[in-house]
Specification:
The structure is a single chain. The chain is an all-alpha fold and 323 residues long. Helix content is 75%, strand content 0%. It has one domain. The protein has 14 helices and no strands. It is globular and about 45 Å long. The two termini are 18 Å apart.
């Protein structure tokens, strides 16, 4: 990127009311993406709690409405102008993938699957996201990255098979669908977070999905009885504010700083964190193989982060810096 094109990008971003992503260096991006993974690891246990009070369709609709209201208020307070028209398609993919598709499909899956099982199946998301990002953006992580990513995915698959006794549950079809739509939403959102703040990416995606969420809530609530419990309210509050808004904010910010492929591999640790929360909050049993899988996955994460650093440095060198 030339100095002239960099200046042009700065002017374009300013004209759109956004600011370039703050570049803290690779370490800061890893921390931000890691915080996103921590927030996401609580999603499935929180969803199980939410299902104590709401039906699956109602929970997803109300969750999206609440998150959109939080995002809308933040956008209004910040006086953020509507994004440029060329970004709408990407925001629609984010909305369809992470605001509507992933929450709905995983919530439906959790009616028949345990939180721990669902978390391990979704452990394939890092590889799926890295592949989508490579196809979409043309990025080329080094061979060592792909070897480690495939190894991490293999560990997750082996652990899934061991956990389920070699059989896939009915909810796994929903989970595999969730992998595809979420990978697209993550990759597109990470790309957009390079030209606008991460909270604006998820904020506008939530606002874009608000009419659909309101309509869904209006249809689902009369047909799915609501029985409010403490667990149900806490679960709804977390998936709305924590997972959907705050978690995605730091996640997209981190992806913008270290690159989508590298950030995506941090999610290899998400299933293992969810296993811990599922044990503590839901009393679900954790397999004796979990510690072994945890060590193997952490090694794979370390390799992907090390292998991805040169590409991250090249991306940082050509990225706009906030004035």
């Amino acid at each position: 990127m030339t100095a002239q094109s960099s200046t042009t990008d700065q002017s374009t971003i300013a004209a759109e009311g956004g600011r370039p992503t703050v570049r803290r260096g690779p370490g800061g991006g890893v921390v931000l993406a890691g915080l996103g993974v921590l927030a996401f690891s609580l999603t499935f246990p929180s969803t199980v709690w939410g299902l104590e009070s709401f039906g699956p369709w109602s929970l997803v609709a109300v969750r999206s409405v609440l998150a959109a209201l939080i995002a809308g208020c933040a956008l209004l307070v910040g006086r953020v102008p509507v994004p440029a028209r060329r970004h709408w398609a990407g925001l629609a993919v984010v909305a369809g993938g992470v605001v509507v598709g992933f929450p709905l499909l995983t919530t439906l899956a959790l009616q028949t699957s345990t939180s721990s099982h669902a978390a391990v199946v979704v452990g394939l998301l890092p590889l799926t996201t890295a592949l989508y990002s490579t196809l979409r953006t043309g990025s080329r992580p080094p061979r060592a990255f792909w070897i480690a990513a495939l190894a991490g995915a293999a560990v997750v698959i082996a652990f899934t098979v061991q956990q389920s006794g070699g059989k896939l549950s009915g909810g796994d079809l929903y989970l595999f669908g969730a992998l595809l739509v979420c990978a697209a939403g993550y990759a597109e959102g990470g790309k957009l977070a390079g030209v606008m703040p991460g909270w604006q990416v998820i904020g506008w995606a939530l606002v874009m999905a608000l009419p659909l969420a309101v309509a869904g809530a209006a249809v689902a609530l009369p047909f799915e009885p609501v029985h409010l419990t403490a667990h149900g309210v806490i679960g709804l509050a977390w998936v709305a504010a924590g997972s959907t808004f705050l978690g995605l904010y730091v996640w997209y910010r981190g992806m913008a700083e270290i690159g989508v492929p590298r950030a995506s591999q941090l999610q290899l640790g998400q299933p293992l964190l969810t296993l811990v929360w599922s044990f503590l909050a839901l009393g679900e049993e954790v397999s004796a193989a979990a510690p072994v899988a945890a060590v193997a996955v952490l090694v794979c994460i370390a390799v992907t982060q090390r292998a991805g650093r040169p590409a991250a440095r090249r991306a940082e060198a050509t990225a706009p810096v906030e004035s």
